[in-house]
Amino acid sequence: MNAIESFGVDKQYEGHIALHPIDMEIPEGSVFGLLGPNGAGKTTLLRIINQIISPDHGSVNFYGQKIRSSDSHQIGYLPEERGLYKKMKVGEQSMYFAQLKGLSRHEARKRLHWWFKKWGLETWWDKKVEELSKGMAQKIQFITTVLHEPKLLVFDEPFSGLDPINAALIRDEMLRIKKEGSTILLSTHRMESVEELCSHMALLNNGEKILDGSVNEIRESHRNGNFRLSYRSKNPITLSLPGEVIISQNITDFNKGICIAELQSTKLNSSEIISALAPQVDTIRFEEIIPSMNDIFIKSVKK
Amino acid sequence: MSTFLIVAKREFTTRVRNKTFLLMTILGPIFFGAILVIPALLAGVDEEPKTILVVDNSFLLRGMGTIEGNRLEYFDPKLVDEQMAISKVRDNDLYDGLLFLPPSENNDPDFILRNTRLYSKGDIGMDLTRNLERRLGKAATEEKLKINGVNPSIVAQSTTIVNIKNLDLTEEGSESSSLPLKMTIGFASGFFIYFFTFIYAAQIMRGVIEEKTSRIVEVIITSVKPTQLLLGKIIGIAAVGLLQFIILIMFSSIIYSIAGVIGILSPEISGLNTTEIASSTESQLILSDIIDSLGAFNIPKLLGCFLFYFLGGYLLYGALFAAAGAAVDSEADTQQFILPLTMPLILTLILSTNIMQEPNGSIAMWLSFIPFSSPIAMTMRLPFGGVETWEILLSMLSLVIGFLATTWVSAKIYRVGILSYGKKVSYKDLYKWIRRN
Q: I want to staple B317 with a disulfide (CB 3.0 to 4.6 A). Which of A195, B201, B207, B403 is the partner?
C-alpha cells in the first residue's frame, strides 16, 4: 500500500507555475526523499500533502483513501523554518501542539514526560522558550512533530541548522520511528542524508518531477559502465583488453607504488574484465563506480 | 475538545497570565479609584488641630472657642496690640497662627474684614482659612442686617436654596436627569470602547504577526483550519476583554461602596438632610444632584448595551486587524493598513462633541447605524435617553452583519496572507486574495 499517492497535482501562483502536474507514490514504511534545488517546488508539494494549501487540480490519496482534514491527526509536519511561541513555557507549549493533534491532556502529558526524560529536558518544562538554546528548541520541535505517533511524518529540510550531534540524534530517531512502521517523507538537498536514510526518492526541478523510484534502482539505472582498477607497479603497465573496453586513464599513484586505471565498458561486466586483467597485473582492488546521488542529482538537473 | 476551543483557550490563558494584563486590570481600577478617593481622603483627614491666637478688637467672633476642631485662644485687645501678639506667637510653640481683627470704624463691618490679617507659622491649611472667612463673613452679614434693623433670625428662616430638577420625558413617565452626568457617562463609555478596541485589536494583530514570522502558523494550520484559527484567536481575546471589563466593574463598585460606607467620597451624601443642604455650598449641591439622578438611569440596560457594543466593536475591528497582521511580514509594515482601519474610530471620537450636543441629531443617528462607528457613537448617545428601541435594534443588527462581513473578508485575506512571505502586499493583492476561492 502507498502512504501517499498524488494524481496530477499542480499549483500555480500569480504568474508563475510552482508545480506542474505531479504523479507520485510514497510506499508505506519507506523513507522517501524529496530532492531538488531551491525553488523546485518541494515545499509547495509538502504543503499540499499537509493540506495547508489545496492544489489547483489533481488529488492526493492517504493510505488509499482521498485525503481528508481529519487525516491531519495521522500526519506530523515539521516545516523548514520552524518556530515556537517565545513567551510561552516549553511544557505548556508542547501540550498545546499535542492537543491540537488530537491527544488528550493526560496522554499528551504522559508522552511528553517520556520524551523529555529521554532527551534530558525535564528541567526545561517550566522555562520559557526564549531561554532555550537553538539545539534544544529543535529537539522540542521534533518531539512535538512526532508525539502523536502519526502514520506519516513530513520533514522539510530536517537537518538544516542542526549541529552534527543533534543531526545524528534526529536521524537515529527517524530510523527508529521508521522501524516502528511509520512512513517518513523528507525534503532535502543534502545528498549524503539521502544515501544514508532514504529507500525511495523523487527529484523535482522547476516544478517538474524528473526522476523517482527506489534509491537502489535509480543508482543502478544510472550505472554507466565505469570501473576502477588499482594495481601494484612502479610505472603504469600498458594493459591489453578486449576491444569494447576503453581505458580512460592509467596513472601512477607515485607515493605508494600503486597505479590506478579507469576503464569504461557498456558491453562487458566486471567479472569478464577481471578475467582479462588478472594475468597482466598484481590487482589490489577492482570496483565498479556507481554514481553517487550527488552526481545523479547534478546530472539530472543540468539535463 | 475542538481545535477552535484549544486555540481560544491558549489565547485566553497566555494573555490573562501576562503581566500587562494583571497590571491593566488590577492596578488600573485601583489607580483610577485612587485618583478619585485620595484627594477626598486627604481633605477629610483630620489634620493636627491648630491653635490660633485671636486678637478680636471688634468682637466679631464673639469669643467662639473652636472652629472645625481648631482651637481659638483669645487675648484681650486692651492688653495686647498687634506687634506684641505677633512676637508672642513667634516665640511660643503653642500657637500656630494669629488672627488679628482691627477695631471697627463707623460700625462698618466691611472695614474690619478688609483689614483682618491671619499670620501663620508654616502652612496653616486652606480649610482653616476658608472656615474662618466663612464664619467672619456670616458674622459681618448679621452685623449689617442689624445695622439696617433686620432680625438675622428672620433672614435665616427665609433663606431659600433653589435646586431645579431636570426631568426627562420618556414613554414611561418622567425621570430626573443630570446633563453633566450624562455627558460624563457618555464620553467615558465611548472613550473606553475606543481605547480597548485599539488595545485588543492590536494584540490580535501582534499575535498573528508573531505566528506568521515564526512560522508557527504553518504547523498549526495542519491541524486547525485558518478560519477556525482566526475565530479562535478573536474569541479568546474577546474573553480576555470581557474578563477585564467584569473585573473593572467589580472593582469600581467595590471602591465606590467602600468609599460610600466610610463616607470619604462625599460626607453630605451619607445622612443627607434638608438643613444640611441649606448650608451646603453650590458644588455640593451639584454632587447631590448627580447622585440623585444616577438612580434615574436604566443601569442594567446601559451596561448591557455597553457590553454588546464593546464586544461587537472589538470583534469587528479584531477581525480586520488580524487580516492586516496576516498581510505583512513585520509589525513595521502594518502602517499602511492600520491607518485606514483606525480612521473611523478616530473620526467618531472627534465627532463626539457633536454627538453629545445633539444626541438625537442626524449625525449621531447615522454614526450609530454604521458598524464602524456605532460602538462608540451609540454608547455615547444612550445615557442621554431618547434613543428609540428600533434605532438600537437596527444599530445592533448592522453591527452583527458588519462583524460577520468583516470576519468573512478577513478570513479570506488571513488564509492567504499567513503563508505568503517576502513580498510587500498592496491593496490590489488583498482584493485578489478576497476573490480567490
A: B201
